[in-house]
Amino acid sequence: MPGGKNRLNKKENYSFKERITNVKTTRWIRFGIVSLIFFLWVIWMGNPWLLLLWLLLVDIYITNFIPWTWWKNTTGPTRVVMGWVDAIIYALILVYFIFAFIGQNYMIPSSSLEKSLLVGDYLWVNKALYGPRVPQTPLHFPLEQHTLPIINTKSYLEYPQLPYHRLPGLRSIKRGDIVVFNYPQGDTVTLKIQNPDYYQIIDNLKQSGINNPKAYIEANPEIFGEIVYRPVDRRENYVKRAIGLPGERLKIKNDTVYINGKAIVEPTNVQFNYIIPVKSMIPNARWEEIGVSHDDYASGASLDEYAGTYYYNIPLTYDMKNKVETWPEISGPILTEAQTGRYDLSTGIFPLGNEYGWSRPDMGEFWIPQRGSTLHLTLDNLPVYERAIRVYENNDLEVKDGKIYINGAPSDYYTFKYDYYWMMGDNRDRSADSRYWGFVPEDHIVGTPMFVFASFDKDKGLLDGKIRWERIFMPANPDSGKW
After folding, report:
1. 464: which residues sit within 8 A by CB, 6+ positions away?
2. What is the pTM of this model?
């Protein structure tokens, strides 16, 4: 429109003083509020160079030397389309900053924390409590972790990559906290097989006699798919309970966790897999009444080749186990998998390829690395700390002629740069946790879930209890403060 164009040209010829005096009072108020939030953010970030971005805000809200809203002087489809584009960009920027520095939603995909958190729970994860990480991969789509749906491409640009930096938080991680973190072994991924992970696949191939498993994976893309590398903050999100803290010594004996030689309190709803011998099948409704999920009981009873009887293998809390023991179908003592002695519980146990003889119910004792603490390295304890030193802290580590070399120099001692944590699920025998992939470095920590804002039971219909109304706004860690 000619008139609109003339108005635009006239504005472009305004002097700086005229631009300032023509700004409406309401716009000054908005500019003041945004500036205050921006300055507080810069103080929190601790980087004065960010103040230069304030000049951009000055132009957007006050001076308009750059014609940010040129489309408002047009008519027709251009104005409509650009109006939507403007609104979407503002929304994405707002979401980006909220998700990066305050918190974000997270959905529980597996049963590793049942019955504390259920499959289908949607959580609000607080990132400010421990201090939010400054995004290490700053150029990413804020609503997708690593892959854009439909087109199946990366949702981020690999460059630039910023060094790890965490802003001040309210407190550090405490024992018993439920924590969301990036999967430590998620740096390398085979897209067609992601469970087991790349390193578990490598170990499995070695056990099967393949001498060069990495070359085997690369030579068989039809089986494993493309091999991709993911930055720390673009790896899969996991949620577990913090059991061991930096600087502590941890041991697991007969499924009991010991910290510095003392058994710790178990979560209220801790579960173990129990072998339940039965004389006849148990109705599904009975399992549901005590809280056993459909996936856990759906396989039904199996034939026990050793005793010639039928049995169930089902995760139960102690209270659930006590109820099951009273059922008339039970034909013998209910034992854990470890107590039966019939299962190999050592497959894939951390550290992969070790000769310690550890198993899921029996591990350690070992020290959890602490930032600034120095460890005496030996060939015996090296497998426990090798990945932390080599991968998480980015050092060149090798063993030559019976000696350990770090960055080319013989080293008997190593001082850690990060704090590390030992994470475990409450559903102990059905949780892929630190017993399989080891320590979680501090730069992988995302935050802690605060409450359940929605919950859906995938085994039920919309009119048959699919929405778990009783869980909405429940605290995400009912055992908080127990430790």
Report:
1. none
2. 0.88
